[in-house]
């Protein structure tokens, strides 16, 4: 049954989607806050600490696109009910099923290629600059190329790469999302370490400081989404990327004496940037494809998010590996940690600045009517 949800069903679908969208960031944010305590308990190095967050993201990224495609084939509600406490609402309120690609075969081979390439690349990146790690990174890149080649030839691909080749809005909106999350995700991880190791705050205090960013994002994201329904989404998302770049730039200058009076407003600027970028960018992606590709589009934008988050953590891990090495973050290594964070924020600022141009390059999502 492919009929759209009506009345109460629409509100239930929105509530279910909202609950699910809340749970994953909530869990990973809790992990980020707890990382210094976990590290102290296990005597973990800075490099190992980064894997606490990365392992979750890597698993999520491996399965987002395949399960998005399975949702198109077998039903999106059916795949959704396999998850993240919203399950009771799904059975109670959501009626019917949506499967825009029912009857098509699932590309198991492509899914395996995609997952293996991703694991090889990310694990290799985390072990640089060891010589064998470069080999793993190369295998990951080669695997990604083989995956793309396979997807271009298979009849029912798990990821329709033609969407990237022939749909400029789809391609550049996903690229903008990849850049944005690559440049921003590790901020929470680095700031959690900074607030607890450098400033000496408890996990509770650090969490209260860090919540200033998502609080602003949560408050303004609905407004940004509605704004992108009325104003060109490209413009709103690009302005958001600009605010994010500004917030990252000021984080470059963090030091031992930086006060909360500067840190909290800066995190709020980042929250503003995230809010203005995320909803309009998702609006652009989902509005650029046919209904039969909605599952793949959702899986793709989700994959860009998690791959970006993994790359962000990968950059942080690489910097830790080069500057701090396999040692714990202690009072003696605090200067090395600050130098690592500064290098990371410089790289992230440059990436996000480049992302502004990727956001603008997609062109207008809405076309003016002729005449």
CATH superfamily of the largest domain: MFS general substrate transporter like domains
Rounded to an integer, what's the Rg over CA atoms? 21 Å
CATH topology of the largest domain: Growth Hormone, Chain: A
Largest sheet: none
- Straight-line distance between termini: 39 Å
The total of beta strands comes to 0
- Indicate how many domains the architecture comprises: 2
State the name of the first-level CATH class of the largest domain.
Answer: Mainly Alpha
Shape: globular
Q: Could you spell the SSE succession in H and E letters? A: HHHHHHHHHHHHHH
Q: Helicity range of the residues?
A: over 70%
Query: Please, how many helices?
Result: 14
List the helices and strands and how they pair.
Elements lengths: L7 H35 L3 H29 L1 H5 L6 H7 L14 H19 L4 H23 L8 H5 L1 H31 L4 H8 L1 H19 L2 H19 L8 H27 L7 H30 L10 H28 L10
Helix pairs in contact: 1-2, 1-4, 1-8, 1-9, 2-5, 2-13, 5-6, 8-9, 8-12, 8-13, 8-14, 10-11, 10-12, 11-12, 11-14, 13-14
Q: Care to describe what's here?
A:
The chain is mainly α. It has two domains: 8-106 and 156-361, MFS general substrate transporter like domains (Growth Hormone, Chain: A); 107-155. It has 14 helices and no strands. The chain has helices at residues 8-42, 46-74, 76-80, 87-93, 108-126, 131-153, 162-166, 168-198, 203-210, 212-230, 233-251, 260-286, 294-323, 334-361. α1 (8-42) packs antiparallel against α9 (203-210) and α8 packs antiparallel against α12 (260-286). The chain is globular and about 60 Å long. The model is unreliable at 1-8 and 367-371 (pLDDT under 50).
């Amino acid at each position: 049954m492919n009929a759209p949800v009506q009345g109460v069903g629409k509100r239930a679908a929105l509530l279910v989607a909202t609950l699910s969208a809340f749970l994953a960031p909530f869990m990973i944010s809790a992990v980020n806050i707890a990382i210094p305590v976990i590290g102290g308990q296990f005597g973990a190095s800075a490099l190992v600490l980064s894997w606490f967050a990365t392992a979750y993201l890597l698993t999520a990224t491996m399965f987002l696109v395949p399960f998005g495609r399975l949702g198109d084939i077998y039903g999106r509600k059916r795949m959704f009910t396999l998850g993240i406490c919203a399950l009771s609402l799904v059975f109670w309120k959501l009626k019917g099923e949506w499967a825009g690609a029912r009857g098509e075969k699932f590309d198991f081979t492509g899914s395996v290629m995609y997952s293996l390439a991703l694991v090889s690349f990310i694990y290799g990146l985390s072990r640089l600059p060891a010589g064998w790690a470069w080999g793993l990174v190369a295998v990951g890149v080669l695997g990604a190329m083989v995956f793309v080649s396979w997807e271009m030839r298979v009849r029912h691909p798990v990821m329709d790469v033609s969407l990237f080749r022939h749909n400029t809005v789809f391609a550049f909106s996903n690229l903008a999302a990849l850049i944005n999350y690559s440049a921003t995700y590790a901020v929470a991880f680095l700031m959690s370490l900074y607030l607890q190791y450098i400033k000496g705050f408890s996990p509770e205090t650090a969490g209260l400081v860090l919540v200033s960013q998502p609080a602003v994002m949560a408050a303004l994201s609905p407004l940004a989404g509605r704004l992108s329904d009325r104003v060109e989404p490209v413009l709103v998302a690009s302005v958001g990327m600009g605010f994010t770049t500004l917030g990252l730039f000021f984080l470059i200058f963090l030091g031992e004496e930086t006060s909360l009076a500067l840190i909290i407003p800066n995190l709020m600027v980042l929250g503003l940037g995230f809010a203005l970028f995320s909803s309009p960018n998702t609006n652009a992606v989902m509005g650029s494809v046919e209904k039969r590709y909605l599952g793949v589009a959702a899986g793709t934008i989700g994959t860009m998010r998690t791959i970006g988050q993994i790359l962000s953590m990968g950059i942080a891990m690489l910097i830790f590996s080069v500057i701090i090495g396999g040692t714990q973050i202690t009072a003696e290594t605090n200067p090395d940690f600050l130098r690592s964070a500064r290098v990371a924020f410089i790289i992230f600022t440059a990436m996000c600045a480049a992302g502004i141009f990727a956001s603008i390059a997609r062109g207008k999502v809405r076309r003016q009517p002729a005449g």
